[in-house]
Structure formats: C-alpha cells, structure tokens
Design a protein that fits this description.
The protein has 117 residues and is mainly alpha-helical. The chain is built from 7 helices and no strands.
Length: 117
C-alpha cells in the first residue's frame, strides 16, 4: 500500500484525477489478500481479466451490427454473444480452492453482523 501511495503522489503532479482514483480504490485493492485465500485463486481474482474477457467476446460478436431496432434487440444480441463467448471460458486457476474464499467471506459476514448488533 505504501508503494501505491508513492505512485499516487507521483501521479498527482501530472494526472491528479488518476491519483484520486488510485487513492479511492486503495483499500479495496487488497481485499482478497486480507481474506487469506490461497495464492492460486487469488492470482485470478485480483485481475480484471475475468470481467474483460466476456466483454471483449460480446464486442467481437456484435461489432458489425450498426442498426439496433430497439433495446430488446440489443439485449438479445448481447445475451446470445455472452452464451457464445461462454463456450470459450476455462476454469479459473485454483477453482478447487474457492471454498476457502467462501469460508473467509462467510466468516467476515458473521463478524460484521456481530459488530452491527
């Protein structure tokens, strides 16, 4: 976190909005690490590839459509493109260890409920 804070200080000079964004998300950036999940699923979960991959698949399959009749047509195309993209998905690395993530999240939820009560 200290290194990222230094990075934000460096960004502040030329790109103040980027520095602000970095500081906003600083606490959330290490959530998976704080939960103590094993390294194999952590490597996949801390990346945005899990989100970006389906989006690029939809973009690839809908880029030539230039006239959408209405919102319903757009939703159908997006759903169809996601289903086609899904066929190319692979299991995330460390999927066998996801039970540890669920357990850590459940423990966190219980402790938050106790604090609130």
């Amino acid at each position: 976190m200290a290194r990222l804070e230094k990075q934000a200080e460096w960004l502040e000079r030329e790109y103040p909005s980027a520095a602000t964004s970095l500081r906003e998300g600083l606490a959330e950036m290490f959530t998976v690490n704080r939960l103590g999940v094993s390294p194999s699923p952590t490597r996949c979960l801390v990346s945005t590839s899990v989100i970006e991959s389906p989006h690029s698949g939809v973009r690839l399959r809908t880029r030539k459509v230039c006239r959408w009749r209405d919102g319903q047509m757009m939703m159908r195309w997006a759903a169809a493109a996601l289903l086609m993209t899904e066929q190319n998905f692979r299991k995330i690395m460390g999927y066998r260890d996801l039970w540890m993530l669920k357990s850590a999240l459940d423990q966190k939820a219980v402790s938050l409920q106790r604090e609130a009560a």
